[in-house]
Amino acid sequence: MTQGTPSQGQSVSGAELRLDQVVKRYPGQKVPAVQSLSLTIPAGEIVAFVGPSGCGKTTSLKMINRLIEPTSGTILIDGNDIRQESATSLRRKIGYVIQGGSLFPHMTVATNVGVVPKMLGWDAARIAERTDELLDLVGLDPDRYRDRYPRELSGGQQQRVGVARGLAADPPVILMDEPFGAVDPITRQRLQDELISIQRELGKTIVCVTHDIDEAIKLGDRILILQEGARIAQYDTPENILAAPANDFVADFVGAGSTLKQLSLTRVRSLDLNQPTTARVGEEMGPVLARAEAAGDDEVVILDDRDRPVAWPWLRQMRNKTKVIGEPRENLVTLDEAATLNDALDTMLTAAHSKAIVTGDRDRYLGVLDFETVTEHMRSAEREAAENVENAEKAESAESIEDPAPTGEAGHG
User: Fold this and answer.
1) DSSP class of 272
2) Residue 412 has pLDDT above 50, yes or no
3) Would the pLDDT of 409 be above 50?
4) What is the Cα Rg of the chain in Å?
């Protein structure tokens, strides 16, 4: 079980998804777009569909909610054939998140999130409560954002609203089609982290189409690598795909530097975090400055009343203030504990502190990761990998000496 899947004891609200000999053939097409696709996606896991352009990954995704009807084969959700009910009814039970959020521009954020619950006949109070809960879950303050319109949001904020809308009716299955493809790299990393954090809490079954193998490695409990016609090249965990590509196609698709990609499997949570001085919004400044100076810290992490970091000022910026003040939480770049070491280095390169604040569930503060810790871990991992190769070679050499190949029997010439 990897980053997205709930650990033992946490709830799984997803459903098993099974595709059995699914085919999609378009009229006049010699070769099917999808040819006999069969796989099982366990409940509560994230599976990333990747492959070259035109391999059938988006077609396969859209057949799950019948935006595209299969030509033949069976798709089952928790053992139930999806054709046993109308396509409209099915889609209300499956969350769907696409690039850019695809929000209705004339509706407020709250109305966008509440679209499906309203169709399902939820009362207004229940929809409002669910909307606020989900906006909080995706990192948007309900009081600040519920009455805004999509045009008043950044690309990343629109995508967060799109994720909230996909979760609104608490569906067991979420489909995501290139959900983070239209945002800048730092926002993309934060949205990926947020999805992993949400998944830790909710345990949905998520199918995510992406063209980016690094995104698949980061998000997926399993990765489905497809060739033309949606033929399966390999369906396995990221670790196994990197360590043992099934064939040359997979090896070429994963690309050079798979040893470096192995480092991207390492999560921030596996490293030691520093615990610098923290303060609460509204706290008297004098004691805070005294604590920081005694600890030898040049900066202070400011937390709100829910232990979420909201600012990270230098001490010199705080000296002329009487009380600790915060900023809007989304202005502060943080790392989820499930972020990769690659993400950590990217964040540090753009941060004023050359460090990164690390958060857990619901953005609760965990500590600070510094550059030296990350680079030392990477050096240690490289040394360990080199030692393993050396030991394996020594063992192979010793084995060949102890058990030499037969050279013929004595006395026979």
Assistant:
1) P
2) no
3) no
4) 25
Whole-number pLDDT of residue 257: 61
Report pLDDT for 407. Answer: 53
Look up the pTM and report it. Answer: 0.83
Together in a domain, 116 and 250: yes
Residues 181-191: b if buried by 16+ CB within 10 A, e if exposed? bbbeeebbbbb
Long-range contacts of 33-36 (CB under 8 A, 24+ apart): 33/59, 33/229, 33/230, 34/59, 34/60, 34/63, 34/70, 34/229, 34/230, 35/229, 35/230, 35/231, 36/73, 36/231
Q: Is residue 125 in some structural domain?
A: yes
**Pair (109, 235) in one structural domain:** yes
Q: What pLDDT digit, counting tens, does each position of 319-369 carry?
A: 989 999 988 877 788 999 988 888 898 888 888 888 999 999 888 999 999
Number of domains the chain contains:
2
Range of 183-197, 293-307, 338-352 with top mean pLDDT: 293-307
Q: Do 199 and 314 belong together in one domain?
A: no
Domain of residue 292: give its range.
270-372
CATH code, domain carrying 165: 3.40.50.300
E-strand spans in 300-364? 301-303, 309-311, 334-336, 355-359
Domain assignment present for residue 409? The answer is no
Residues 261 and 214 sit within 8 Å (Cβ to Cβ): yes
In whole angstroms, what separates CA 47 from the centre of its chain? 10
CB 139 within 8 A of CB 194: yes
Which residue's structure tokens are 């999130």?
113
Tell whether 342 is covered by a domain.
Answer: yes
Q: Is 339 helix (H, G, I), strand (E, B) or coil?
A: coil
Do 250 and 282 sit in the same domain of this protein? Answer: no
Are the beta carbons of 19 and 58 closer than 8 angstroms? Answer: no
| % of the chain exceeding 70 in pLDDT | 92
Band of pLDDT at residue 93, cut at 50, 70 and 90:
confident
